[in-house]
């Protein structure tokens, strides 16, 4: 912002201020109304939702599915979608740090004199995209179930295979019914798309980015492919 | 009444030192009136009692000169067009106050030890009068505070209110946002249930992935290589002493700058310069002459 | 420098403006000395407050607890083709909160391990420390947080974890299997000093994630 723009802004602001109303009681009235709403909402939430205690902390658990508080869901989801191990520090430290630095230094790289959101297309678009991205990540984090459970109902002869699939981490990338991620192909109807032999081959070879599950014992491989081939 | 006449203080001169110094019946000089007749004792007593609050205020004001500052702050003009979006900041502040007050009372019952923390929260929830209510207010108040801060930040961003001359206040605000998130994180371990335990484990390990200093930072947060005996009291001290102190100090700085620089007007509100009689050049000259406040 | 700033010295030239708070007869050297003294003494007082406090707070980084071993059951309880889940105390003095879970089995000849050794795998995910579960049906370890998958010996086969699962040192005393300090392993399962989850083992990462003095050296051989 040039000195001329700064001067113009200060003059304009001084002018607007002269035409304004005193802080007390006009702005304070709005502020205290808002304060009343805030405390009302907090009290209502406290009464309706309460402060239930979960089960006591147990570091030895092997069945608990940890989830963060909702306002960290976006970070949680970020950690889930960034799969390659080499990128873990990028997801944990890199991206959050970069975002925070960008946020902190905003007034120093966005120095244009324009303030109207409609006439700052880049800033407004970037802001909206950030909000949409965070809302989307929060939503994904909120619905993301445990990657070790398939809720789909299957005939009893396929139960064993379902267990193998659930326990092999397939859901980390593949979707089966309501569960699982969307990094790899959806397997909900895989039985009608691939013959059983092709399924077995895929599991053993691990096409493209998929890891090969070569070490799966033959019996488990059979159960797994029986289950997957039954999905249509 | 004296109180009314006292409050817009800059309009009147404070009593000269020596006249109103401490003794109860010595009112500020300009308020003294010579009584036409001698009032009865009861009347004099009630009059004195009525004047007492004003006298106390005057006494304090004479020593602090606070009324000038307070009236300056309260009666400063906020620009034209200020709307409900401008209450988000004070709402966030209010949410923080709710957190501070409920937090103090929770601290009276809470024990920051890995063996007793869970039981002390059960005690608060089940036995203490209004315990679960206050606990719930603290718990949901934190969510609401985070939401309000984000909304406040969104308003500042879309209204371009972080631009000259308010850059520094934006920076302070972002630091406050980070501190609030840290506050949420450290408070999360305290109930010591499964959810809070594992969220803290993951959070500490996220810190640990920072290059070079990360592993040491994790050891510092846990007070050792594993979550141990003093981890909880460490989080507790950070949550209720270190961070609130920093947040209060920064809120003070944030508000000081708000009062000094003024709140912005919505960007679509323009000063209607052309309608104000004088041609532009003259107006500019006038502004020049009045001396628009120099930028800091 | 100070001499030049002295107003008297600048006879003939335009006198420089006097510094704030200057009073008649004050010499600039005196002002200089007091400026330094004020900053130095204040700084010293500040350091005297802050340094012990900081040292106090970061001391645990450099402390290592006592090495302790705990028996988790007789040798015959463990087999080589599957894991048995055992719970033992890793951090003392905090009751249940100091316990942890390990998956223990005998070394398997099929996998090229020494059948006399005992392998104890930690249930702490090497991604960010969530509790992993050994799924008998698949023979894999699964992390419920971010979807990490490990094979039977603890090597990563899917998801974001950066290294295989940690292990515990083991020994056999009086027919009892005992578990000792935690250690991490490289992708080739070679033991290294215990790392926190999310930290790589081996390669350039040795320098980015320096070993912590609070952990035990890895078992040799």
Describe the fold and architecture.
The complex is a heterotrimer of chains A (232), B (296) and C (221). By secondary structure, chain A is mainly α. Helix content of chain A is 57%, strand content 3%. Chain A folds into three domains: 15-48; 68-144, Orthogonal Bundle (Helix Hairpins); 156-230, Orthogonal Bundle (Cytochrome Bc1 Complex, Chain D, domain 2). Chain A is elongated. Chain B has 296 residues and is an all-alpha fold. Chain B has eleven helices and one strand. The model of chain B is unreliable at 19-24 and 275-296 (pLDDT under 50). Chain C is an alpha+beta fold and 221 residues long. Chain C folds into two domains: 2-61, no CATH class; 70-208, Rieske [2Fe-2S] iron-sulphur domain (Rieske Iron-sulfur Protein, 3-layer Sandwich). In chain C, strands 1, 2, 3, 4, 9, 10 and 11 form a seven-stranded antiparallel β-sheet that branches. Chain C has a four-stranded antiparallel β-sheet with strand order 5-6-7-8, with no helix packed on it. In chain C, strand 7 and strand 8 (156-158) form a beta hairpin. The longest helix of chain C has 31 residues, at 28-58. The N and C termini of chain C lie far apart (67 Å). The model of chain C is unreliable at 1-5 (pLDDT under 50). Chains in contact: A-B, A-C, B-C. The interface between A and B is large, with 81 and 94 residues. Strand 1 of chain A pairs antiparallel with strand 1 of chain B.
Brief account:
Chain B is mainly α and 296 residues long. Chain B has helices at residues 2-6, 41-64, 66-74, 88-107, 117-126, 131-158, 167-189, 194-208, 214-222, 231-261, 280-290, and one strand at residues 77-78. Chain B is extended.
- The proportion of residues forming helix of chain C, as a percent range, comes to 10-25%
Specify the overall morphology of chain A: elongated
Please indicate the count of domains of chain C: 2
Low-confidence stretches of chain A: none
Q: How far from one another are the termini of chain A?
A: 63 Å
CATH superfamily assignment of the largest domain in chain A?
Answer: plastocyanin oxidoreductase
Count of all domains of chain A: 3
Following the backbone from N to C, one meets helices and strands of chain A in this order, namely HEHHHHHHEEHHH
Structural class of chain A: mainly alpha
DSSP, total strands of chain A: 3
Structural class of chain C: alpha+beta
Corresponding CATH architecture of the largest domain in chain A: Orthogonal Bundle
